[in-house]
Amino acid sequence: MIRSILCAIDMSQPKPDDRPLRVAADLARHHGAQLDVVTVVPDFGAGEVSSFFPEGYQDALRDRTARALAAHVGEVLGDAVNEKVRHEVAVGKVYREVLRVAKEAGSDLIVVGSHAPELRDYLLGSNASRIVRHAPCSVYVVR
User: Within a domain: residue 117?
Assistant: First the structure.
């Protein structure tokens, strides 16, 4: 039985793909499951790259992204559903953070979108394929 669903959304896009979110919400409704939504922002770390950004930039980016994520979920699913959704903004590599959040949340299913693969994806693996390979639970890839 599915009790907890994690949906990964890429909020770095000007218009995030709402198909994975709609699928995850339908599955959560069907199973009576908790819906969690995660997005990941890059980690600028403590190296040379971070010195190009003003102090507090990472925290400000995370806060802005959290507001945008909640607004997007509300726009796509409606405010009543959005109030019950747990929102998470993680910092780091996408596939690692999605897997970490899924494990911590005890997710039974991860729903993730997939873009059209490029040649480099066949050599290195896209985030979706890495999530599929290493997930502690089932993964539903929305194309």
Answer: no
Phi/psi of residue 6, nearest 5 degrees: -110, 125
State pTM to two decimals: 0.89
**What is the CATH number for 138?**
3.40.50.620
Q: Where are the alpha helices (DSSP H) in the chain?
A: 19-31, 57-77, 79-82, 94-105, 119-124, 127-134
23-63 tens-digit pLDDT: 999 999 999 999 999 999 988 665 555 566 677 778 899 99
Cβ distance 87 to 9 under 8 Å? Answer: no
Residue with tokens 């990941």: 40
Residue 121 included in any domain: no
Overall domain count for the chain: 1
Contact 132, 95 (CB under 8 A): no
